[in-house]
Amino acid sequence: MSVNEHRPKPADLKFEILEGATTTSATFVFGDEDHTLGNALRHVLMQMPETDFCGYSVPHPSEPKMNLRLQTRDGVPAIDVLKRGLQDLVTICDILDEKLDAMGEPSDPAAPVDSDSMEV
Amino acid sequence: MSKHIFEMRGDAPHRVFSAAKPDPAERGLRYPEKVRRRLRMHCCKETPEELVFDLIGIDVSIANALRRIMLAEVPTMAIETVYMEMNTSIIFDEVLSHRLGLVPLNVDPRTFSEVETLRQKVLKEYTTRDGHKRVQNEEDAEEQETELLDENNTVVFRLHRRCVRPADADPAAPPYTEGVYSGHFEWIPQGTQAERFPDGLRPLHDDILLAKLRAGQEIALEMHCRKGVGKDHAKYSPVATASYRLAPRITLAQRVAGAAARELVAACPMNVFDIEDGEGEGEGGAVAVVARPRDCTMCRECIRPPGWAERVTLARESNHFIFSVEPCGALPARVIVKEAVRVLRAKAHGLLAYFEEVEKKRNLT
């Protein structure tokens, strides 16, 4: 190891539910995660009809932690929604993988793809 | 205009967030199914140095996750430890080691595993609380941090150069020097590596100058390479850069012809517009068309003169990403993108697996 090498310590806990959580609203703490998973997961969770509120933050850049707040509707347990959200993210990755395999040889993108008709 | 298109006007972007209008065809579908319907990928350019592709119909958060992963979390192999046996050159040991670390290697990281410490190995085998205790009870903390190196996670190179002044060298010539290059690396196969890599392992380029030696100076060292990720050190990043931009959409709201068309073509520094023969006679028949919208940098030079903002609309599509991935060489760009998707999937899947394990344990007790 070289002289001034700094290796950040990995998080103590991979996953934790912050104190004060109820069934339908909880703050989950993800160890060793950052905006990469945080924002993607937040987006996927916000697409679910059960979600009332979802937001994430990285409390401090030198702490390997990401907080995700999730509040749900109609008494659906937040942890269940989180699991479904993760499952959805896995499915989206599978779709991306499929489309990537299907991506052909380079061709001219000039033909304008009409995204007017597409609604995301 | 569709809600995915936001305008770049003279002062600022407009209508960036507009209300969603649900597509009736997607009613009742779960989100991943909607993504499956919308997602499109198109390869625009592929050379060994760069891959440009369109990713259409996905949210920015996922596109950004892929970009971040390509930069910082797709693993590659790089020199991590240097054992210096002899260094009488003028370059310091630390500086030389640092330079060596940055040398890109032509080693496929997928054929190697990551280095584990004893503590990690024990924790993996005993994911229960007992495993944790067992690690903590180990008296020798240093022993816990022992890295378990073997042929599956380490590549060894040697570098030995000694500068000898040729006997017939001209005494009046400037002092004799020799360069030490990455091509001088000698691969030392470990275990079965010689059979696994019959073509040998080597740096990607042979002409990287690492140090210079005068007559009588010598460098002798051994290097251990391991798998790592870019967030640990930039030398592990598989890409020189990976970025995306939103696809420009440029439209002419009115017919621009004659002298106005020429003015428009001349105003654009990126040469986005062309003049084509349209209907009509002579001067007025030459109309401006948007020929290369992708080249637009949104400099807004074309809408700056008074009156032009009504004729030209500059906009971007917020769900159309033009990705550009420039690999360093060890992995082709397509593989890097694929690996990035795999890493993102592993993040989500790893947490699901963790929940399952916790559930199992709870049922046991």
What count of helical segments of chain B does DSSP give?
Answer: 9
In DSSP terms (H or I, runs of 4 or more residues), the helix count of chain A works out at 2
Write down the CATH class of chain A. Answer: Alpha Beta
Based on the structure given, which CATH architecture of chain A is correct?
Answer: 2-Layer Sandwich
What is the CA-based Rg of chain B, rounded? Answer: 29 Å
Distance between the termini of chain B: 59 Å
Please report which band the strand proportion of chain A falls in: under 5%, 5-15%, 15-25%, 25-35%, 35-45% or over 45%: 15-25%
Average per-residue pLDDT of chain A, rounded, comes to: 87
CATH class type of the largest domain in chain B: Alpha Beta
CATH topology descriptor of the largest domain in chain B: Gyrase A, domain 2
Total tally of structural domains of chain B: 3
> In percent, how helical is the residue content of chain B?
25-40%
Strand adjacency order, main sheet of chain A: 1-2-4-3
Succession of helices and strands of chain A: EEHEEH
- What general outline of chain B do the C-alpha atoms trace? flat
The domain tally of chain A reads: 1
Largest sheet descriptor of chain A: 4 strands, antiparallel
Q: Please tell me the overall pLDDT of chain B.
A: 89
Structural class, from secondary structure content of chain A? alpha+beta
Protein name (chain B): DNA-directed RNA polymerases I and III subunit RPAC1
Domain DNA-directed RNA polymerase RpoA/D/Rpb3-type (chain B): 50-354
Pfam families (chain B): RNA_pol_A_bac, RNA_pol_L
Keywords (chain B): DNA-directed RNA polymerase, Nucleus, Transcription
